[in-house]
Amino acid sequence: MQARTVRLTMAQALTRYLSRQMTEIDGEKLPIFGGVWAIFGHGNVAGIGEALYQQRGELPTFRAHNEQAMTHAAIGYAKAHFRRRFMAATSSIGPGAVNMVTAAALAHVNRLPVLLLPGDVFANRVPDPVLQQAEDFSDGTVSVNDCFRPVSRYFDRITRPEQIIPALARAMQVLTDPAECGPVTLSLCQDVQAEAYDYPERFFEERIWQVRRPRPDRAELAAAIDALKGAKKPLVIAGGGVLYSGASAELTSFVEAAGIPVCETQGGKSSLPDTHPLNMAAVGVTGTSAANRLAEEADVILAVGTRLQDFTTGSWALFRNEAKTIVGLNVQPFDAGKHRALPLVADAAEGLAELAAGLRGWKAPADWTQNATNGKTEWQAAAAKVTAPSNAAYPSDAQVIGAVQRAMGSGITILHAAGGLPGELHKLWQAGAPGSYHAEYGFSTMGYEIAGALGAKMAKPEQEVVVMLGDGSYLMLNSEIATSVMLGLKLTIILLDNRGYGCINRLQMATGGANFNNLLKDARHETLPDIDFAAHAASLGATAEKVASIADLESALERAKTNSRTTVIVIDTDPLVSTEAGGHWWDVAVPEVSTRAEVNAARKNYEEKLKLQRVGD
Question: Which top EC class applies here (predicted)?
């Protein structure tokens, strides 16, 4: 019997297929795609644009102002949903497509799902070179969309309408696979978008995608249990995989039963509430003194759902116990075996539950656990001191963080990305529920903040989403303030204006460099700009004001709670001050030769620090 078919264009088939993909969260069946972000141009308006219009009731389309920003919003949505739901983004060819490449790299580094649907040149090549086409003199198959290849988990170019059938099947496998998860790019030739094909009706049957939870291998589990049982100074590092697995309850049960202290990466912060006595908070370059002191001494480190990047490991100079063993509990084998770790390839929740069963009755030495809790108390005192209110003309980032914490509490979602704020917030923010701390620090993308927060707000409309960013990030990408107003999605944005790239200026000084090209006053200029950020934000539709002090900031935040639309609060801050408590060395290469005595001194110190790195680990 011949299969029933329906004649559709390739673009119509794509959008109909996306609308039939489902997930299940807490027993509720939901569309797995929250919608499609779209900026139309000649490369997608007639094809996928028409198809999205036909499907608008089941697959909503959202208009943005910048292709990179709309993809950030899609990524923020997926992160806020712990990868259980995600979005697509479509652009025209040429600059519209390439604008999304930075966001694709962000998603790739952070292992976050997003479906990218850039238009492409004509498959039939008759109009070549079409408007915005970049020609390769030696390869007729290349277009600018090939830039997506290294930053996509799966890439395909659709040159015939029937190719969308296997391409979408593979796309969904990648987007929903906990180990392979990341961006998928389906490059859509613009003529093929409009071509029709007789698609099998079964291609459009509803499907519910479940989270795969692999359990650990018996031999790997036994080795991990043996290592932990022999530990005198065990430590858990909680990464983003704890949150994506929904494993906070399993982590809590595991560490409470065994008395093992926990520290958190940027991606893993909020795995445990900050108030938990075993949570030592941030680890590494931006870590607390409580966490880093333990990391230096630990003899067994259980790294759960983390990539162990250099900010976590202090450029591999943090873990100083030469007899240490790392156990890598990770769903991705590539991460599980890093740095000679004992791999434990498994879902975080399943792996923690089985480790807990294997360790039943075993506890870490009481003096080690007590040592940890004592260190936490000392850190809390240091943190309270730097976040306390100040009457300084230019308060520090830490003092602004303290004001936001006091005014807004831990029940909000705090979101940030690049510059000095990730370091300060990682140490100092007191996170509450899992996912309430939303950091993009894998790619540290300036400009993610506002757009990513828009996506987070779409995922959690009932939550107060608070954005903290600097003037540099704001100037790079602020257009989605207008989108948030248009969509009625309120954000509270605190803009810390230190008149330049203060974080990198401090790094420049720390490596012996002269103040050069980072702060506005140290860059080439005829006239120093005096930007009225509040007026600019108001022109985009936000409620906006500038405050003169920490006390005024707290009052403004109280007012912002009652506002019905996006609110931007601007405060001037000191570009030279950062929190000295906590932290760790980070490997930033200093020139071996310089005419500056400051650089030569910094090089000497750098060479001393290099000796702490565990080469070969």
Answer: hydrolase
pLDDT band, residue 1 (cuts 50/70/90): low
Q: Give a yes or no: residue 187 inside a domain.
A: yes
Q: Are residues 130 and 193 in the same domain?
A: yes
- Structural Rg of the chain based on CA atoms: 25
User: Can you give the CATH number for the domain in which 198 is found?
Assistant: 3.40.50.970
Single out the residue of 31, 135, 43 nearest to residue 93, CA to CA.
Answer: 43
Q: 């430590």: which residue's tokens?
A: 235
**Neighbour count for residue 451 (Cβ, 10 Å):** 33
pLDDT-derived band at 2, boundaries 50, 70, 90: confident
pLDDT at 598: 97
592 by DSSP, 3-state: which? coil
Question: What DSSP state is assigned to residue 274?
Answer: T
Residue ending a domain, among 346, 378, 410, is 378
Query: Which of 155, 187, 209 lies at the terminal end of a domain, its last residue?
Result: 209
pTM: 0.97
- Are residue 366 and residue 475 in the same domain, yes or no? no
Yes or no: say if 492 and 403 are a contact pair by the CB < 8 Å rule. Answer: no
- d(CA 157, CA 412) in angstroms, rounded, equals 41
Burial tier of 297 (Cβ tally within 10 Å: 0-12, 13-18, 19+): middle
Q: Is the dihedral of CA 85, 91, 94, 100 positive or negative?
A: negative
Evaluated on CA atoms 303, 309, 310, 315, the torsion sign reads positive
Could you give the CA distance from residue 268 to residue 344 in angstroms, rounded to a whole number? 18
CB 491 within 8 A of CB 474: no
